[in-house]
Amino acid sequence: MAALVKRVGWATRPLLPVVQASDLDARRWVRALRRSPVKVLFPSDEVVERKLDPGKQPQKAAAEAGPQEQRQKQQIQGPASQTPSTWEESGLRYDKAFPGDKRLSSVMTIVKSRPFREKQGKILLEGRRLIADALKAGAVPKVFFFSRLEYIKELPIEKLKGVSLIKVKFEDIKDWSDLVTPQGIMGIFAKPDHVKMTYPETQLRHTLPISLICDNLRDPGNLGTILRSAAGAGCSKVLLTKGCVDAWEPKVLRAGMGAHFQVPIINNLDWEAVPDHLPADTRVYVADNCGLYVQAQAQRSNKASDYGWVRDHRPLKFHEYEEEEEDLESGASQDWLPELEVQSYDSDWTEAPAAVVIGGETHGVSLESLQLAESTGGGRLLIPIVPGVDSLNSAMAASILLFEGKRQLRVRVERLSRDRH
């Protein structure tokens, strides 16, 4: 009996299962899948919950994750200061350019081709400061090429919506750039319209009733320097007649140092349209860039070729001068130039709204500019220089006249203020 009870007791005891090591690993893995989902906190306080697929191992899940999830993982691991949370909220994205990208070929076309710029209505700006000035003035960007994301982050976010952002190698920008030290960012903009631009308030408060007319200026560096002086003096606007270098050429932009977005520029004008862009009762003065010795000799003959500042050929449309031109060749007549009074540049010529014509150094001013000066009651402004020196640089002459006009206006205001008191 005792033996029977012992057998029954042995039979009623629970059998201890034999557990293999592989079974323990499997149970641990199942428990891990039953835990609460992972919560990911972004710097923008956005919470994302993600569950792992039970049918995938962690290595497979990471390998099969999409590019967006991998990018989010990199952002979490990186410093919070470098995470473009505002970019994510604004929906901004950028592309990476690959070799042979057709979008890149248009950059050099815009840089080198004035007809393309005029036909497409687009310009190229390079450098962070120039691009920032353009955006502040209301210029409309189309495409940005940049080598580092930090350069784009410096620009206003609201100005970048709808703009194509393309990240390229710095070597590519270095190949395209005209700068000695490229800044790593270039932008294609719609050609600015002076009517729609927003110029700085300080510039508007100091605007003077003086306009500048560029006549046949072909040197990019000179034109850029002239635009810079016009903005510095407070010029109301700059008019460029046909025959001048394009104001939006990269070399002019570089020499202008942001002046393009501080003073209104009206490009490629016919002489017939110039008066339409000047205030009423404007007197037009032509910069006489000759020395006293040259001026005295020119007065004896009154021939255009004797004046360094007058083009010695006339447009074919001025038919009334054709007969006199034949007489000039035979020496019979030398009276075809408009008669303009010559006055010193420091005499008072700013009583009425004034416009100053600056001609190119090679070809001088045109006959149309002399006729416009004569019809408005203007004259020639003589800058005396030492005998033996042919002329001044056109950019220097423009700067002298514009700041002299600024001085005259300031003196007049001070005189009126003293008279009132």
From TrEMBL:
Keyword Cytoplasm: no
Name of the protein described by the UniProt record: Mitochondrial rRNA methyltransferase 3
Pfam families: MRM3-like_sub_bind, SpoU_methylase
An MF annotation (GO) of this entry: identical protein binding
Annotated region described as Disordered, given as residue ranges: 49-89
Keywords noted in UniProt: Methyltransferase, rRNA processing, Transferase
Organism of origin: Capra hircus
Similarity comment text for this entry: Belongs to the class IV-like SAM-binding methyltransferase superfamily. RNA methyltransferase TrmH family.
Domain of life where this protein originates: Eukaryota
PANTHER family: RRNA METHYLTRANSFERASE 3, RRNA METHYLTRANSFERASE 3, MITOCHONDRIAL
The keyword Cytoplasm is assigned to this record: no
GO CC entries: mitochondrial matrix
Segments of skewed composition (Polar residues): 73-88
Sequence intervals crossing the membrane: none
Matches recorded under InterPro entries: Alpha/beta_knot_MTases (IPR029028), MRM3-like_sub_bind (IPR053888), Ribosomal_eL30-like_sf (IPR029064), rRNA_Methyltransferase (IPR051259), SpoU_MeTrfase (IPR001537), SpoU_subst-bd (IPR013123), tRNA_m1G_MTases_N (IPR029026)
Domain (RNA 2-O ribose methyltransferase substrate binding) ranges: 124-195
